[in-house]
Write a structure and sequence with these properties.
By secondary structure, this protein is mainly α. The protein has one domain: Methane Monooxygenase Hydroxylase, Chain G, domain 1, CATH 1.20.58. It has 5 helices and 4 strands, in the order αβαββαβαα. The protein has helices at 33-41, 57-66, 93-107, 130-139, 174-193, and strands spanning 45-47, 78-79, 84-85, 119-121. The strands form 2 sheets. It has a two-stranded antiparallel sheet.
Amino acid sequence: MADYNPTNTAAKCPDLDATWAAVATPLPPAANTEACSCMMDTLGCTVNTDKVDSKDYGDLFGVVCGYKSGKYCAGIARNATSGSYGAYGMCNATEQLAFAFNQYALANSNGGCDFSGSATTKVAAKTTSGACATLLSQAGDAGTGTVTSAPTGGAAKSTGAGSALGVSHFETGFLTMGVYLIGASLSGMAMILL
């Protein structure tokens, strides 16, 4: 114990290699429920929540993201190895799936919003203004831009802290799962110590 000398210097992120598959920069986008809410208002095709159970989302993501080499899911992508993140990758799973459905529907105007009844049409906002216009402009039509504006609190409709943290799928495999399990274990141990 006498040799222990604590410092406040942050550790450097490891380099990308066979044992560490996440780049140090860029970081994933910060949670921004206002951006997600604004995006949802502009969609003409969304998840039919009356007919689709959230446990079926994984299969639906697999279908829509499987078309055109993932083109319709670029705006919700999260890949820590390449450091590529879609502007809406931090939205909850329902919002992400709705965005992907809408991207597909925009490219396939004849019956593109169906997915065997899992998707439904709605009236989309024709124009946006204020904070929404800025957020959507930064995200871009395909959702591949970077949202840098902080939420103003005007359009956010959160159903709880966990709603924006939903994960539809992992893209970095066992490393991500290992980091998650280690973090969960450390959190559990800290709670027991309290």
